[in-house]
Design brief:
The chain has 156 residues and is mainly α. Helix content is 72%, strand content 0%.
């Protein structure tokens, strides 16, 4: 096996790589969050990108748990399903947040529309049921930290 294949497998099978990339995405979301908060007069408006980065960070964090425990996962962006696959307990309110962030990872952070109009309707309905401040960085950090701390406790 050549060096590239070995490195590929090492990265694919080492949960710390997944956790570190999750943290990188979280730091990127935090950087964007701070820019949006401090530069309001410049009208920096990257809410969809901020939420997509948060969702991607949770996705990799959940997948890091799966890799650490030897649990297989499919290539889904459904954060609620991934949390369940990783055997991470979430509340009903947390599932609402994860469901909304999933849609930002799947399409709303990257495209102007989903593939079908009913997905847009459902996404708007789910998002309107959340108070916007639940996706504020200060409010969502304890949730991310809980899953990260659990990872560090079990797999580091």
């Amino acid at each position: 096996m050549d060096l590239y294949n070995k490195k590929f497998e090492l990265r694919q099978e080492t949960p710390a790589y997944w956790h570190n990339k999750s943290h990188d995405l979280l730091v990127s979301a935090r950087t964007l969050w701070k820019a949006m908060q401090s530069e309001k007069e410049l009208e920096i408006n990257c809410w969809a990108t901020y939420k997509m980065l948060l969702g991607m960070s949770f996705e990799l964090l959940f997948k890091a748990h799966c890799i650490g425990s030897g649990t297989g996962f499919n290539s889904t962006h459904d954060l609620v399903a991934l949390a369940n696959t990783a055997s991470l307990s979430t509340s009903k309110d947390e599932n609402k947040i994860l469901k909304v962030l999933s849609e930002y990872v799947i399409w709303d952070g990257r495209y102007p529309t989903p593939k079908k109009p009913e997905h847009l309707k459902e996404h708007w309905k789910n998002q309107s049921s959340l108070l916007d401040d639940k996706l504020d960085l200060e409010k969502i950090m304890p949730l991310w930290r809980r899953f990260s701390d659990s990872f560090m406790e079990h797999y580091n």
